[in-house]
Amino acid sequence: MGRSGHDPEEDAGSPTFSPSAELPPLSPADLGVLRQVGARWQIGDTVRALPVDPQAGEIRSSAVGGAHRAAMLFLPDAPGQLTATPVVERPDTAQGRVAGGLRRLLLGRPLTSASILRERMSKIVALPVLASDLLSSVAYGPEAMLAVLVLAGSGALGLSLPIAAALVVLMVAVGTSYRQTVRAYPHGAGSYLVASDSLGPRAGLAAAAGLVLDYVLTVSVSVSAGVAAITSALPSLAAYRVPLALVVIGVLLIGNLRGIRVAGNAFAVPTYVFLVAVLGLIAAGFVRAATGGFTVVAPPPTPAVEGLGLLVVLRAFASGATSMTGVEAVSNAVPVFRPTAWRNARTVLTWMISILIVLFVGLTLLFHLNGLVPRADQTLLSQLARLTFPTGPWYAIIQAATALVLLLAANTAFNDLPRLLYFMARDGYVPRRFLHLGDRLALSNGLIALAVAAAAILVAFGGNTHSLIPLYAVGVFLAFTLSQTGMVNHWRHHRDPGWRRRAAINGVGAVLSAVVLVTAAVTKFAAGAWAVVLAVPLLIYLFRRVRRHYDHVQQALGLHPDHPRGVEPAEDAPPAIVPQQVRHLFLVPVARLNQAALRTLAYVGSLGQPALALHVSPERTEADRFREQWNTWGDHIPLETILSPHRVIIQPIAGYASALRLTHPDLTITVVVPDVVVDHPWQRMLHYRTEQRLRRALRRHPGIVVTSLPTHLTR
Predict the structure, then answer these.
(1) 531 to each of 239, 280, 579, 591, how far by Cα in Å?
(2) Burial 154-187 (b: 16+ CB within 10 A, else e)
(3) Burial class (CB in 10 A: 0-12, 13-18, 19+), 68
(4) Residue 430 to residue 416: CA distance in whole angstroms
(5) For position 16, what pLDDT does the model report?
(6) CA distance 420 to 213
(7) What span, in angstroms and rounded, lies between the C-alpha atoms of 129 and 388?
């Protein structure tokens, strides 16, 4: 899975996200088999005596807008090497050109593969992009802690300070742990790679499952919370809560599909505005408190509905820990930083943790000094802002900045989940299509999957996803716990200088994270945490099923030595990979003798290989009539007619081809179907799609190839 003990300085210059990831190189063992198989090939010189020049100027250019204007389709690099130009990438249909124009309008011009290094972010841009989720969580994390304590009465609110101190210890431990993770694993993937490398694949998958759930919930909850803030200010929009949320997800998706750098520049400013606004609020709040001698205002009397005990304290601790959602973002996204990536990532992570502690401690102290308690009609942050700025525009600015950053907090997930899926796809645990880089070098399939999943949750819950906020702790702290436990094992195995101190830091973080995880899972189980507790093993099961499939594909398609001489292949064996062992039979289904059929028969006859024509007839008289027509043509190719009393066409052809292959497993049967190419998509409905239907019917049968010979209608 992952690698440990390597030198980050050595790895820092190698691009982790590569357009070639979908086409990994062959292993030394595969190269050895390839060399052995190639040595057995026997092929005539006529195969290499091409009738065309592959790099001829006529092939590399095309007339555009007249005979004297030529556009280059391919640029020659070296003998046998061409580079495709944007001209050849353009769609050749009206529908394709319209779709391509819309794509360019929304996403911009495609970027070349060589631009991947230029798309990385600077520290100033990466901070707000990766920290938006973490910093926005202070808008509800301290309030979530106080909302639990107030259940034991207003007298229990004084415990917010020692609990906040414990949370600061957790923040420092987790932040320091992830700094060490970035140093030890500079290629990213964070908790998934650390747990996989140090604790085993199942622990890595558990961490990945927790993060997948966390990222999807981040998008749905953050967007719904931001939309709720908007509809609170504009009640007339409350009925359009779900459509507004879907529009926001769409904007985030398009922004991220435009590329890392573009999305970072677009979404950085609102986070900085929120940061400045809240820091200004904290500074003004302490100045106001200092004028009063830091006198603590008694909170309004609140009757206790629960007894104050250890369970309440642990629940408050776990609820306050939601302020840390998003702290793992940097370790997952190391490759998006400019070189040296891991150094810049550590710097940004330090900034993030420091700012988080300042915001969390500052707000918690001000809530305590001003005697503020959670209210159903107004958030604590709103109460503090209104109290600190009773007049002027600052209250509105803080509220607007909070609403905006809550909306953009989802962007952290859009940055991290596609990269997590990339690493998992590289290991074969999710579909390989998550390795694909889109037009703008973004992990497009991961972005789209995240947007669809978050939108489904929003629609399912009618835009009211606040009940999902406590569930953050289960998924994200599962990843925290496994990551830090894995780092303890990492230091124990490698024993670098100072490893005991590093292992102790990770151990403290692991214990505190485990406390939050268990507390959240137990206390919130009936309130919905059961869904996450069940979803994690379900996701692990799905990941393992995907990996089992890819392992089976690798075993079946990997390079293995060919059948030894004198050994007959099995009935279900695939075609040989040495040309002199391939025996051909071309099978041509013919419905009627017309230009399309005759051209297909001429093509097959020109190959100089055994061929057989096949005609399916609904009744005997039609079969006899067709045979007479065949004899009139000259009976140049053997003909077999099949009587189909129930007028079924595709299944008899497929069954006959399959029976031929079963009785002669050494044959490679190529079914060549005459195909009429129409001008417009709607015209396809007017013709039988025989090739596609045969391909579906025969795709499970080894040794059978289905192809077509297109015949274009003359204008």
Answers:
(1) 28, 39, 55, 56
(2) bebbebbeebbebbbebbbbbbbbbbbbbebbbb
(3) exposed
(4) 16
(5) 57
(6) 12
(7) 29
Mean pLDDT of the chain: 82
Number of Cβ atoms within 10 Å of the Cβ of 546 = 17
* Closest alpha carbon to 169 in 510, 486, 453, 482: 510
List the one residue out of 367, 154, 377, 402 whose CA is nearest residue 277: 402
Non-local (6+) Cβ contacts of 52 within 8 A are 59
| 521 touches 215 (CB < 8 A) | no
- Out of 43-52, 184-193, 668-677, the most confident range is 668-677
Residue 574 in this model has a pLDDT that exceeds 50: yes
Nearby residues of 545 by Cβ (< 8 Å), 6 or more positions away = none
Regarding predicted confidence, which is higher, 472 or 220?
Answer: 220
Residues β-bridged to residue 707: 672
With both helix axes pointing from N to C terminus, report the angle between 394-408 and 410-426 in degrees, rounded to the nearest 10. 20
The DSSP element (H or E) to which 612 belongs, if any, is strand 611-617
Q: Strands 74-78 and 70-72: what pairing?
A: unpaired
Give the number of other Cβ atoms within 10 Å of residue 421's Cβ: 26
76 neighbors 55 (Cβ within 8 angstroms):
yes
Give residue 670's identity as a one-letter amino acid code.
T
Q: Tokens 């309004």 map to which residue? A: 300
Euclidean distance between CA atoms 417 and 35, whole angstroms: 40
DSSP string covering 280-322: HHHHHHHHHHHHTTTPPPPPPP---SS---HHHHHHHHHHHGG
Decide: helix, strand or coil at residue 326: coil
Contact 520, 470 (CB under 8 A): yes
Judged against a pLDDT cut of 50, whether residue 435 lies above it is answered with yes
pLDDT at 249 over 90: yes
With bands split at pLDDT 50, 70 and 90, how would you rate the model's confidence at 283? very high
The token pair at 505 is: 């830091």
Q: What is the chain's alpha carbon radius of gyration, rounded to the nearest angstrom? A: 33
38-47 mean pLDDT: 78
Looking at residue 3, what is its pLDDT?
42
Residues 678, 655: Cα–Cα separation, whole Å = 29
What's the token pair of residue 292? Answer: 């009063």
Q: Which candidate, 192, 246, 184, 190, places its Cα nearest to that of 219?
A: 246
The candidate with the shortest Cα–Cα distance to 358, out of 179, 131, 533, is: 131
